[in-house]
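Our preliminary data section would be incomplete without showing what the modeling component actually yields. Below, a chain of 276 amino acids is followed by its predicted structure, encoded as tokens that our downstream tools consume directly.
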Amino acid sequence: MTPLRTALLQGPGGVPASTDVTLEALDDAAGRAAAAGARLLVASELYLTGYALGDRVTDLAEEADGPGAHAVARIAARHGLAVAYGYPERAGKAVHNAVQLIGPTGEPLAHYRKTHLYGGYETAQFTPGDTLVVQADLDGLRIGLLVCYDVEFPETVRAHALAGTDLLLVPTALMRPYEFVAQTLLPARAWENQIYIAYADRCGPEGDFDFAGLSCLAAPDGAVRARAGAGGELVLGDADPALLAASRARNPYLTDRRSDLYSPRHPHDPQGEPPR
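Predicted structure:
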């Protein structure tokens, strides 16, 4: 099976709250990624609008099938590659920190709402999602979606691994001084769960935030197949099904799990009930 070449778009902070600007940048990146053989482009958390929106979140939010989604679909179809991007989603009275995956012919493949909100800004402006595992198939790989802080919980990535995710896409807005998340935690998550993780960050100052960059494609063998620096950059790496299968055969964490010991009813689980 052919490796899935994956492009990570690391964009600068401080972008205007204008989807026209970000869509132009996305179109340019999609063209460069497709020319390099990519079949998937991953952009950052809240890519369409920028992250530091304050009280403008509600005004800038749009529905999952809104004008931003249609514009991204045209970009995906024009360049023949799938695109994952973050945006503020309006759903009735709620606003979610969401990511959408659009297929290479412009069709929506998957949509996920961030389940673990980070800090006072996000908890004040967004409603958390309530569905953890969202997946789609692309070029023979099972694709999963999370957003930023979600991936820092071991349970979220393990849930994806157990559900058969091969490549986990994580649009993110990792801030300084938490560079260790991109440098150390992400490769460890990929190794312990035997999956690929594509982590696309913002970079530079934006409002009160300073984003770390360091976007990466981490592989199940613990190696980092692509790594960005601290500035704006488009990096590419391959998610190789053959390497994935070989790594899983050598490192059978999922099949060797003692799930009988991890049950909520186990006596050492503080939230579980003692066995009868």
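DSSP finds eight helices and 14 strands in the chain. Residues 220 and 244 are 6 Å apart (CA to CA). Preliminary results of this kind motivate Aim 1 of the renewal.
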